[in-house]
């Protein structure tokens, strides 16, 4: 298979996989994404969250408002710029994010067990390593 055709098939397949795994989510994907960014990257202002998500500031601000109302994030004055707020993941937010991740991993793990034999699971594991390298190349991380 030509690399460009492989790239398109990989993009389509991974997109479908992500959408299928998200079907078990119990919160809106934008809110889950914000919790994930705060968990991985630490406290961030809304503008940075909007940029990371690839959405407008207004869209990110609505998600932040909803998350704040649910006690999943808290805002504090930014130490370098008092006009900005720095958003922190609360313990409740961390717990909620972990529940979402556990649901996703459980659904995906069950599908892996039901679909593949031991040799295919080994192949899939090796493929994850390759996909991680590809992601690192694309993201520069």
From TrEMBL:
Q: What PANTHER family would the database entry show?
A: CONSERVED PROTEIN (PTHR39515), HTH-TYPE TRANSCRIPTIONAL REGULATOR RV0880 (PTHR39515:SF2)
Q: What is this protein called?
A: MarR family transcriptional regulator
Q: Which residues form the HTH marR-type domain?
A: 3-136
Q: What Pfam family does this protein match (any one)?
A: MarR_2
* SMART domains, per the entry: HTH_MARR
The transmembrane residues are none
Q: Extract the coiled-coil ranges from the record.
A: none
Q: Which SUPFAM superfamilies match?
A: Winged helix' DNA-binding domain (SSF46785)
